[in-house]
Amino acid sequence: ELENLSDAPLSGDEENGGSEERKNEINGNWIPATSITEAKINAKAKRRLRKNSSRDSGRGDSVSENGETLKIGVVVPTSPKGKLLDRRSRSGKGRGLPKKGGAGGKGVWGTPGQVYDVEEVDIKDPNYDDDQENCIYETVVLPLDERAFEKTLTPIIQEYFEHGDTNEVSEMLKDLNLGEMKYSVPVLAVSLALEGKASHREMTSKLISDLCGTVVSKTDVEKSFDRLLKELPELVLDSPKAPQV
């Protein structure tokens, strides 16, 4: 009955009453004016709360029974959504332990201490090949082209000028697929030595001698010096004393 009271402001008699406590009659009962005012305020607050809750019901925010606003993404503990990730039995049975001792399900390692047997090849498999067990797999190294050759071997030869170990250079060159660029090894070494010191030229002579017969052949060395003589005019631009050296 108190919720149906009007929200209209106080009448003129109530405003002129000052601090004097006036009494009104509701259903034959006399109630102080202060109690009626509090009842109106409470009724107005409840109607505003209902209006806001119905307006925000589709926006993700909701109002709980206690009047507290729940933010978006917050799941009420008693909501069914909170049970989606719950792995406990919905029937209330069981002790909550993993199925099959942790060995069941997809993408699991199996029980601790489990040893797997060697998988046998199915001969009836349409993809079975008799020669697949005798295959030998080797790492394929693509041959170096001219640009990659110079970019790869230049730091190797420059490091050789520092440590002077021809065996290390030989091992590094064996790991590379030089292909038809073998004859270019002496060409690059001599070209770099012409721009360096006299000690570098002496080390280059020793390097070519040690690589001949292991990494490069005598034919490759002959071909490399033929190319050096043809490119001598270009070498003079960087090293004027190249013909004498």
TrEMBL record:
Residues 99-110 have a biased composition (Gly residues). GO terms for biological process: negative regulation of DNA-templated transcription. Residues 43-52 have a biased composition (Basic residues). One of its GO terms (molecular function) is RNA binding. Residues 148-245 form the MI domain. Belongs to the PDCD4 family. This is Programmed cell death protein 4. It comes from Rostratula benghalensis (greater painted-snipe). The gene is Pdcd4_1.
